[in-house]
Design goal:
The protein has about 575 residues and is an alpha/beta fold. The protein folds into three domains: about 5-150, Orthogonal Bundle (DNA polymerase, domain 1), CATH 1.10.150.110; about 155-320, Beta Polymerase, domain 2, CATH 3.30.460; about 330-570, Metal-dependent hydrolases (TIM Barrel, Alpha-Beta Barrel), CATH 3.20.20.140. About 45% of the residues lie in helices and about 15% in strands. It contains 24 helices and 17 strands. The chain has a seven-stranded parallel sheet with strand order 11-12-13-14-15-16-17. Helix 1 runs antiparallel to helix 2 (about 25-35), helix 8 packs across helix 9 and helix 20 runs parallel beside helix 21 (about 480-490). The N and C termini lie far apart (about 55 Å).
Amino acid sequence: MAGKPVPQVLEEIAMLLDIKGENPFKTRAYYNVAKTLSGIENLEEMVRENRLKEIKGVGDAIAAKIDEYIKTGAIAYYEDLKKEVPHTLLDLLQVPGLGPKKIKALYDQLNVTNVGELEYACKENRLVNLPGFGKTTQEKILKGIEFIKQHKGEFLFGDVYREAEQIKDRLQKVVAEGLAEVCGSIRRRKEVVKDIDILVGSRDAGKASSVFAKMPEVAEVLLAGDTKTSCRLQSGIEADLRVVGEEAFPYALMYFTGSKEHNVRLRGIAKRQGLKLNEYGLFKDERLLRCRSEEEIYRALGFAFIPPELREDMGEVEAAEEGTLPKLVEMDDIRGTFHVHTEFSDGVDSVAKIADAARSMRLLYIGISDHSKSAYYAGGLSAEELRWQWDMIDAYNHEHPDFYIFKGIESDILPDGSLDYSEDILEKFDFVIASVHSNFTLKRDDQMRRIIAAMKNPYTTMLGHPTGRLLLSREGYEVDMKAIIDAAAEHDVIIELNASPYRLDVDWRHLRYAKEKGVVISINPDAHSTGGLAEIAYGVGIARKGWQEKKDILNTRTADEVAKIFKKRRQT
């Protein structure tokens, strides 16, 4: 099969059809199937067994295209579309505020086919008098293009993590046990990364380098050598392999994990102790101080091991010296989760299927929270649909006494700060996630008044994705996160850490302040399929980066403990 995942290809077909101006029902079918397939891991097996049409939304036409792509690596229909509509137009969809209709107008009327041509057209003021655009839209587009240029060459952690781990696992087969590791910003769990760094310790550097260069993910070898090999992968990201001797592995692992600032601090500490620290070892004069692990290196410097996620020179060195490093939350601490969408709104799986998947992950509870009625674009639930869903939840809870489904909603925060249902409905939910889904461009003060008004509402349990950012696609709306955290502390509101790799919002840089203020964090996947539940792990990585401990996280508690917290919030 070709390099692009099937869901991405189907989504690109939908986008090209949209730009072409095709029937919206046809394009929506491709979008919906792409979303559904993103949660399916055994797609090739389903093709072999001729079971594609068991998947929701997959009819004969789309099934044939998936089958063709899996078997041949190409889809003739897709290739014909790219000839009819310039494929570079898809790049314009990265520009905030540009949708298929506007892109079609730019192409038809100004012959704009790529981001560079669009920027030039804006500089020439050609959008000012274009119907449906105008001066304000032109300024927003220019601002969006600048955002794209600033983040060029960056990749979402969630897009590269699994690929990096797969490469590491293959290399692990040709080196001694434990002497292969992903380093750099990926190991530190940065939300956005620029490259993949992999380290191995081996007595046969040439063998490891050769295996790396010949991996199927590699599109081009940029630099080949025994100790360093650089490649560009099929996904577009560059990957570097460093090979060191087995005895040097712990020192190199610390060095290539970084960050640069953290490393500088460690070298300074070593120097004050009459030592020298680098990627080759820890030395007293010219004598190597043998350390078999990173833990032993930190111990030799006189303080506790610092987890990779914390190595940003943001107080972790001082905490290690004082013995006050936090005991970071771990994935095994998670007992349940919230912010899960079902087929009732814009999810693809049933309540029961989502719950079954959560149980298979050994979770003890989930909180269903489909979209509220104002979210018509996402199938927001009417009062009648809510009652149907509640009946399903009650039936499931009755049949599975070892597991519990909390009844929730992701309620739109309306422009005036009110929630999206009347009190007689809101009071029936176990919890309410209040989220902004519209009017992103309100002025900072107006946006803050809106959000804080929602947080004061006694029915608001959690604040969802508090800045609304989409990493590498959209800046968050203008808010003062410190003030929002203060309000959460005052009104006993939980703040969501949205674990979707597209969001990872709240930003980890704000989590220490939330911890200081005693604000509880809930790590939620914002799942729209059973497969999306696994994204909790991304949120755990960000929580660890934000110094969060088990006690700081809502969903490390039992279902009974969570229920008491929800009830207490209603009584305040």
